[in-house]
Amino acid sequence: MTESGTPGSPTASAREGDRAPDEKTSTATNLAFGVDVGGSGIKGGIVDLDTGALIGERFKVLTPQPATPDAVAGGVAEVVAHFDWQGPVGITLPGVITGGIMRTAANIDKGWIGTDVYELFSKNLDGRKVSVLNDADAAGMAEDAYGAGKGVNGVVMLLTFGTGIGSAILNDGKLVPNTELGHLQVGKKEAEHQASSKVKEDKGWSYEKWTEKVSEVLKTYEALFWPRLFIVGGGISRKSAKWIPLLTNSTPVEAAALLNTAGIVGAAMAVDQGLRV
Predict the structure, then answer these.
(1) What is the number of domains present in the chain?
(2) Rounded mean pLDDT, 140-160
(3) Among 90, 170, 184, 223, which is 20 to 30 Å from 13 by CA?
(4) Distances in whole angstroms, Cα of residue 240 to Cα of each of 70, 86, 146, 264
């Protein structure tokens, strides 16, 4: 259901902060549709692929609880129907997808594990073409093409700092899917168990203390992948001026630019490219 409880009628709270800085209402023709499925909300919109901007406002419904495959697929169908969109649809999910099968499930019902996501969404969207990918991978694609990574050649890495650490790696715009680098062991612990923003909050660390751990993680990623740029996202990226200057790794670090629209934009890019993981 929508946040207002009335299908097709987003409330002010659903729309708050939904307009991207460069969002527009032009007559653009190079369009695609993306849906970003999260633990609390299912958000979608029409994307102008020439600019990465949304056409009009995004639309959001609450993620069903429990967030079972059929219930979430119904929410995705509601978002698509709100725009009367008849074409292909790109969809993000919070988990690893290989061979079209959901392998993990983060902030979503464990019933997703083993689900054929293409069969599920195609059935709920009248058989139309879909692309389904990990949410961090979608955000990485969008940031690399339109955001902080635009114009940067070589390896670009997106890292989202939240409850865990999400990751995406792109090389000259080509995605390496499902990297899950938050689970890489750095020292004696997984990276996300020592450098996520949740750890900072739980331990009451200052930015100085926390960035010591983040720097250690970034230095490990540098030694393995030699990226040209790190892009950092997640809620804490909005306060990037307070902590990015404190980092001691070598690779430049930039805050993500697309904010709440990155997953939608990346999903739209994926279906336009015919991406299937």
Answers:
(1) 2
(2) 98
(3) 90
(4) 38, 39, 19, 22
- Do residues 110 and 72 lie in contact, with contact meaning Cβ atoms separated by under 8 Å? no
Helix (H) and strand (E) counts for the chain? 9, 14
Give the whole-angstrom CA distance, residue 38 versus residue 187: 31
Does residue 35 lie in a domain region? Answer: yes
Contacts of 83 (CB under 8 A, 6+ apart): 33, 44, 45, 46, 59
* Mean pLDDT value of segment 14-27: 42
Mean pLDDT for the stretch of residues 221-228: 98
Find the DSSP H helices in 150-206: 192-195, 197-203
Claim to verify: residue 126 and residue 152 sit in the same structural domain: no
**Tokens 């612990």 label which residue?**
189
Give the residue carrying structure tokens 């934009």.
Answer: 265
Question: Helix or strand or coil: residue 213?
Answer: helix
The whole domain housing 264 covers 29-135+259-271
Residue 24 lies in a domain: no
Whole-number Å distance between alpha carbons of 107 and 149: 27
| Model pLDDT for residues 44-73, shown as the tens digit of each residue | 999 999 999 999 999 999 999 999 999 999
Half-sphere exposure of 189 (CA within 13 A, CB side): 12
**In a shared domain, residues 113 and 33:** yes
Domain annotation covers residue 21: no
* Tokens of residue 113, six digits: 């594990």
38 and 172 fall within a common domain = no
At 170, list the tokens: 């792109």
Q: Are 73 and 79 in contact (CB under 8 A)?
A: no
Residue 106 belongs to a domain with what CATH number?
Answer: 3.30.420.40
pLDDT tens sequence across 3-18: 433 333 332 233 333 4
Same structural domain, 125 and 57: yes
Q: Return mean pLDDT, the chain.
A: 91
